[in-house]
Design goal:
elongated; single chain; 16% strand; 3 helices; alpha+beta; 3-stranded antiparallel β-sheet
């Protein structure tokens, strides 16, 4: 699997979901968004964490619709 599919930058995540970086960090620290980690001086997000977060968002949305 190509490296680009395993991790993304915070900027890529923010662009994809149309949020600003401060909102990302604030919500990631509150465990509302996928966690980040450092590689040297770079901050990255695992694609698997993003996918898990998306699945949780979908499940939450579906649960709210059922009420």
């Amino acid at each position: 699997m190509p490296h680009d599919n395993l991790v993304m930058t915070v900027a890529e995540f923010c662009d994809k979901y149309r949020i600003d970086r401060a909102s990302y960090y604030r919500n990631a620290n509150l465990k509302r968004l996928p966690p980040y980690f450092k590689v040297g001086g770079a901050t990255r997000i695992l694609a698997s964490d993003e996918q898990e977060w998306l699945a949780q968002q979908r499940q939450s949305h579906l649960s709210q619709e059922a009420v």
